[in-house]
Write a structure and sequence with these properties.
About 85% of the residues lie in helices and about 0% in strands. The longest helix has about 110 residues. It is mainly α. It has a domain of about 110 residues.
Length: about 400
């Protein structure tokens, strides 16, 4: 208790003076240190601000550069897309031309085949493998070849249209991505410290695994453009080929069609000439038949006219054979009557011209029938070639597409 009530120790004035000086020195030191820290902090803040501003400015420039890059490639893609779309539309018109041309080949082929079938109905000697048939077969072969060629070209055109549309799709997808990227970068360029909806990201510096390098980014669009260019060039070459094919095929078809028509005209003229000659011969045969019939009638009349004299001579001989006794004399009259009978009988028997004339008449009748049949054959041929075939071919129209 006595110890608790003990008075606190007292210091010497020098100690007080020292303690006071130490407090002053310590405070001054702390103040100096604080001022130094403040100055360094301000300098650091100024440096950070400058760095931040510089970095922000650099980032903004990079954003602007990136925007320009995207706009450049977007414009390139837009140009190629417009070109490939236009080329595809033009190629579609060429496809329509091919389809119409292919359809236009069907009727000529049907007509050529019908002509060949009709000409199989010719009869007799007229069923001949003539120039018309040769050219009709050639025309059918030309048309079948043209149809096959146009069909292959149409398939090639459809495939090229598909490739054009695939290139167009790639360009559109690339453009869509470019548009989205440009919208994002435009948004980024518009951001400031006071922009609303600012927030911290969970992992702001995370690098996604599907990031591509700038070189790959440029190459991707460049490849799409090159593919579009390639397909457009292929399409241009195909259009030139289609033009050439359409021109050549229609010329071949027209040339062969005219060749067939000329062959028909020549053949019809040839058959008409033959028919006219046969009709002339028939008229001659008919005239000769009429003349021979008159000749046979005259011969028969002449023979009939000799019956009276023969009967008279024979009756006289028969009567004189009944003379009695010595009157049955071989006198001059008897010999002359015998001679008369023999002479008339011989003259009748010598008229074999009637048989020959009748044989000739039969020959003329056979010739008449043969000529009439041949004329009918020619008429049938003319009907087939001039009426059935040539009139059908008049409707034949080979158009250019």
């Amino acid at each position: 208790m006595a110890r608790l009530l003990q008075a606190p120790p007292k210091f010497h004035p020098s100690e007080w003076d020292i303690a006071h000086k130490m407090q002053c020195v310590s405070t001054e030191s702390q103040k100096s240190r604080s001022e130094r820290i403040t100055a360094e902090s301000q300098r650091l803040l100024d440096e950070i601000e400058k760095t931040t501003q510089k970095t922000r400015s650099d980032v903004n420039k990079k954003i602007e550069q990136r925007q320009e890059d995207i706009k450049f490639w977007k414009q390139e893609l837009d140009n190629k897309l417009e070109e490939i779309v236009h080329e595809t539309e033009v190629l579609l018109t060429f496809k329509t031309r091919l389809e119409k041309s292919l359809e236009n080949c069907k009727e000529p082929l049907i007509i050529a085949q019908k002509c060949l079938l009709n000409r199989e109905k010719r009869r007799g000697i007229d069923l001949v493998h003539d120039e018309v048939e040769h050219e009709l077969v050639k025309e059918a072969e030309v048309l079948q070849g043209v149809i096959a060629l146009l069909g292959r070209t149409l398939e090639q055109t459809n495939e090229q249209i598909r490739l054009n549309r695939a290139a167009k799709y790639n360009l559109e997808m690339d453009l869509k991505d470019k548009f989205t990227a440009l919208m994002i970068d435009d948004y980024c360029a518009s951001l400031t410290n006071n922009s609303p909806d600012m927030r911290y990201a969970d992992e702001p510096v995370k690098i996604e695994g599907n990031f591509v390098s700038p070189e790959d980014w440029r190459d991707f669009s460049n490849v799409n453009i090159e593919k579009a260019d390639k397909q457009r060039n292929n399409s241009l070459a195909l259009r030139a080929l289609i033009d050439s094919i359409l021109s050549e095929t229609v010329n071949d078809m027209r040339r062969q069609c005219e060749t067939v028509n000329a062959a028909f005209r020549n053949r019809v003229k040839e058959v008409k000439d033959a028919k006219h000659k046969l009709e002339t011969l028939l008229a001659m045969v008919l005239d000769e038949t009429a003349s021979q019939e008159k000749n046979i009638a005259a011969l028969k009349k002449a023979i009939a006219d000799k019956e009276g004299p023969v009967k008279v001579a024979q009756t006289r001989l028969e009567a004189r054979n009944h003379r009695p006794n010595v009157e049955l004399c071989s006198d001059t009259l008897q010999y002359r009557l015998i001679g008369e009978v023999q002479e008339i009988t011989k003259n009748i028997e010598r008229q074999d011209a009637l048989a020959q004339a009748e044989t000739v008449l039969k020959g003329l009748s056979r010739r008449q029938l043969s000529l009439e049949e041949e004329i009918q054959v020619k008429e049938n041929t003319l009907y087939i070639d001039e009426v059935l075939c040539m009139q059908m071919r008049e409707s034949l129209c080979i158009n250019s597409f």
